[in-house]
Specification:
Layout: E1 5-9, H1 13-25, E2 29-33, H2 36-46, E3 50-54, H3 62-72, E4 77-83, H4 87-95, E5 100-104, H5 108-141, H6 149-163, E6 168-172, H7 179-188, E7 197-201, H8 207-215, E8 216-217, E9 229-230, H9 232-236, E10 240-244, H10 251-263, E11 265-266, E12 275-276, E13 280-285, H11 289-294, H12 300-306, E14 310-312, H13 323-338, H14 347-355, H15 361-375, H16 388-399, H17 402-408, E15 411-414, E16 417-420, H18 426-440, H19 445-451, H20 456-465
Parallel strand pairs: 1-2, 1-3, 3-4, 4-5, 6-13, 6-14, 7-10, 10-13
Antiparallel strand pairs: 8-9, 11-12, 15-16
Helix pairs in contact: 6-7, 13-15, 14-16, 18-19, 19-20
Length: 470
């Protein structure tokens, strides 16, 4: 039997009996009501997914009940039942939230079909909303992380570009620094956030296909073009088109993208008319576009149009103080993804992570931590599950003499605590120590507070400050 519940509200006995019987045979759970008062009671107790509601009842007006039911559940499917003479009332009901209406006398098959379609449409809307929430949560979890001065400057520029609705943004930085996250950040924090964000890797699509991908084509534009097809700029609407690795875009295509920026229009392949575009263009590259312009490998006019709002991402070696925070962020992410309960990185391993230069940047750190978490059987990540390059970097740093370390300003040591030359996030260290203490004492806040030499109230305040669960 279907789990869908339908409430039939009509003052004519024969109509109620016919509808209840047909709906029951179709597999629905059905209740019926003769009056407005009974309908209110049945609605409250039965909690239907759909209501077949007569406009004229002995003690109520159907549109008044419609307003009450929709105020309680905006997603409720309500199909009005009306005599042909009340067609105007049915149209009014549609305007205030009814899904559909059927006129008396009606065909039972038509009514069943109308209910089935309305419930299926509602199911698809719910499913779509769910996946949108999942996607939004995923995007929001894929955050830029770090509090070093260079990253704070990046955050400021993202906000400026989003608030100003900059039509073009150029993001530069080495591979693995998070350029796509910056592009999504500009989109998500702007007035265009409800519009599509569509990315295209300019290096991954052959030149012969890239124009079709970006601008679409008209029917008959080429041999296999049996029908018109929209391109990315058209599908983006008023959203954002992210052109990743734009330094690899062919010169010919650069001219066409420049036209979109300057004229806010383009032509589909095989088309005679211009199509308007309101999309923001965010471009990214790991190449030196200034040098490419001098060498004639990149159009100067396109570079200057893109470079109106430049955002440069620092490499990880330039912001080593963010490594503990990044490590904690990835550990939390993979704990959730793999169902693990790793509470952090042990001190020796963190020393190795801080000593390594990370040529693959944040992406390499993320991959290294993911691998270690899949292999680690203990409660903390240890050095045995990281690559020899990472561990040897830490050993090299340990092997340098105290005089060399002082001369190079490598780190300042006090007992077993070492301060890296690039600094470290004190708040992140404090957060990890609190997590470790809570883990050690199985969540006992009194014991954890004693272990950390602080009062229980202070511990609870700092747990709240760092967003840690009680």
């Amino acid at each position: 039997m279907s789990s869908k519940r339908v409430l039939v509200v009509d003052d004519e006995h024969l109509i109620r009996w016919s509808l209840v019987r047909a709906l029951d045979e179709a597999g629905y759970q059905v209740e019926a009501a003769e009056t407005g008062a009974e309908a209110r009671t049945k609605y409250r107790d039965f909690r239907p997914h759909a209501v077949l509601l007569d406009i004229c009842l002995p003690d109520a007006v159907g549109t008044d009940l419609l307003k009450e039911f929709k105020a309680d559940d905006k997603d409720l499917v309500v199909i009005m039942i009306t005599a042909h003479s009340d067609a105007d009332s049915a149209v009014s009901a549609l305007k205030i939230g009814a899904t559909d209406y059927v006129g008396k006398p009606f065909d039972l098959e038509d009514v069943l079909h109308s209910i089935e379609q309305a419930l299926e449409k509602q199911r698809l809307q719910d499913e779509n909303a769910y996946f949108r929430r999942v996607l939004k949560d995923k995007i929001e979890r894929d955050n830029l992380v770090g509090n070093c001065p260079k990253m704070i400057e990046v955050y400021k520029l993202i906000k400026i570009a989003a608030d100003a609705d900059a039509k073009t943004v150029l993001i530069t930085g080495a591979s693995g620094t998070g350029k796509e996250l910056v592009a999504r950040g500009v989109h998500m924090h702007s007035s265009r956030s409800k519009e599509p964000f569509i990315d295209v890797n300019c290096a991954a699509i052959p030149e012969s296909l890239l124009e079709n991908e970006l601008f679409g084509h008209e029917r008959g534009a080429y041999t296999d073009a049996s029908q018109k097809q929209k391109g990315i700029f058209e599908m983006a609407g008023g959203g954002t088109v992210f052109l990743d690795e734009i330094g690899d875009m062919p010169i010919g295509m650069q001219a066409k993208v420049l036209k979109v920026i300057e004229n806010r229009s383009y032509r589909r392949l095989g088309g005679d008319n211009d199509v308007l575009s309101d999309a923001r263009i965010v471009a990214a590259t790991n190449q030196d576009l200034t040098s490419m312009v001098k060498e004639g490998k990149f159009r100067a006019d396109l570079f200057y149009r893109l470079n109106v709002m430049p955002i440069k991402l620092p490499s990880l070696v330039e912001r080593k103080m963010d490594i503990p925070q990044l490590a904690a962020y990835f550990i939390n992410r993979f704990n959730e993804e793999y169902g693990r309960n790793i509470d952090g990185v042990d001190a020796q391993t963190m020393h190795h992570l801080m000593s390594y230069d990370w040529p693959g940047n944040v992406r390499e750190l993320r991959n290294a931590i993911e691998r270690a978490m899949m292999l680690e059987r203990g409660s903390s990540l240890t050095s045995q599950h990281f690559s020899s390059e990472i561990i040897n970097a830490g050993k090299s740093a340990e092997g340098s003499s105290a005089d060399e370390a002082t001369a190079e300003d490598d780190c300042f040591s006090f007992g077993q605590v070492k301060l890296p030359k690039d600094g470290i996030s004190l708040e992140e260290v404090e957060k990890q120590l609190i997590q470790m203490a809570l883990k050690r004492w199985n969540g006992n806040q009194t014991k954890a507070a004693e272990c950390l030499r602080m009062s229980r109230d202070t511990l609870r305040y700092r747990m709240k400050k760092f967003g840690l669960p009680k």
